[in-house]
Model the fold of this input.
Amino acid sequence: MSEQSSWVRYLPPVLWEGDDPAAPFSLSGMLRIFEKLLTGIDDTIPIVHGDHTHDAITIQLDRLHRLYDPWTTPPEFLDWLASWVSFSFPNLWDEYTRRKAIGEIVDIYQYRGLKEGLIRHLDFMAIGARQPRIAIDDGNSVLTIVPDPNRQQHLTALVSQGPSARRDAITHDLVANFEGLTRPSCLALAPDRTLLVGDLGSPGGWTPVVDQHVWQISAEGRYAFAGAQPIPHPIGPSGWNLLSPVAIAIDSASPWNAYVLDLTVFGGSPALFQLASPDFPSANVIATGGTLGTVWPVAMTWDTNGHLLILDRGAPASAGGPAAPFIIDVTLSPFAVTTTPLPATVIEPLALIVPPAGDVIVADAGPQGTVSPGNLVRIDRSNPAAWTAVALLPSAVGPGNPLVQPTAIVEDTAGIYFVLDGGLKAHLPQLDPALSSTPFLRQIAQPAAIYRVDTTTAPPAITQISMDGDLVSPTDMVFDGRTLIVTDRGEYSDPGLAGPVLRVWRATDHEFGVVVHFPASLAPSTQERAQIIRSIQEAINAYTPTEITCTMVYGV
Done:
């Protein structure tokens, strides 16, 4: 170092006058070392580190902000940067996913303590090309939304309080203090604006035991109460032996009557009941399955001529065979039954309505073993000998037709419908032999949602009006002209459940469920699915207060 350091001019001249920078030790030579380290001045002695030289510290300082940016920090700094936001990476994540995670986690933290925050957190933990469908079941049984075609909105819980349970002092089993909505399966809107909700109760063998009922709910979400100590009280006579209420219809008489189609009672035969308002003192059997000719009824509605129409799958779903759907036309006075097969183009119908124009609109889930969309089908009944079917939506999967599992349909105005969609195909695991052994692996697994379908445009315009994550397993929907009301039964797929399912979390306090489905088209390996489940479980444990219990159901 024969050149004098420029930094000596900042010192009193008495210290450096006559100083020889080429001497073995000099003040100028010492300052030149620091000047080299800090500013990178050129000289004949470069700073070498292994097989490379370092930029000047001033340049490093100018770049320091890049260390705190997840998209520009070196890969070796990612774990360190994640620790700044109290986060650690699952082993499966690649570099891109890790960078993306650091950039998004702080925004998710802002929703901590809310259901939306947990949904976003769990979706975030399962990030990647093989994204599963994650739904949080917090017991919301009846939900409402005022549809806005211009934006998506969250649904609001109308009924979230289910049964109350306690632990028996002797057996330590969970028993119900009082019952309430647990797994609602069907819904009807009465003339007095109350709701009648059919409920499946708890699955067989699960605790606490909650029986099947039909509940009357006010427009404000309150149960009808009865008893010396008022508790929620279902309609109908004491001891009414329901097993699986599948559909409810209400007539326009005064006083009005409710008609309940129960799937299997009286030794295995479905039955159609009539109950008279306002007190519903008895449940009169109008017809049994043998009289109606039902095989697997899935929905019921009123025809414009005052008949009851029952939509039947035509083959037992439990057997996993293809459907052969038909419609049963029931005249009540005098009693008469007429059965008409649906056209062969209707594959797996789940719901129907009869608009004022008189044609039947069927919500068809389509083939269950393939990646194909559902559809809305108009049934022309002008020729009683041969009904014809016209699909209203495109037959290809995509933005033009996002329907997968349309479980309910209502009409807004002529040609404009609201469709409730469960998002899963096959809608019953046993209907897809290739995947039936793993019920949480489906051909399609996307969030349940409500869509507005406008068939008056060409092509039809389909808009999602609900937010992802608000629904788990929606079953039915009604429309009062302003508000959509939806029932959600939660996830209880009896065959092949995985995870520590010990009880019905909807019937116990301070519990919720997390349900994970994997789409078969992006199905990761069993090991990778297990890793995703572990990541989700770790996120739940970190996110959930200790006094709250979470039960997971999933497929690995």
Notes: The domain at 133-542 is CATH 2.120.10.30 (Neuraminidase).
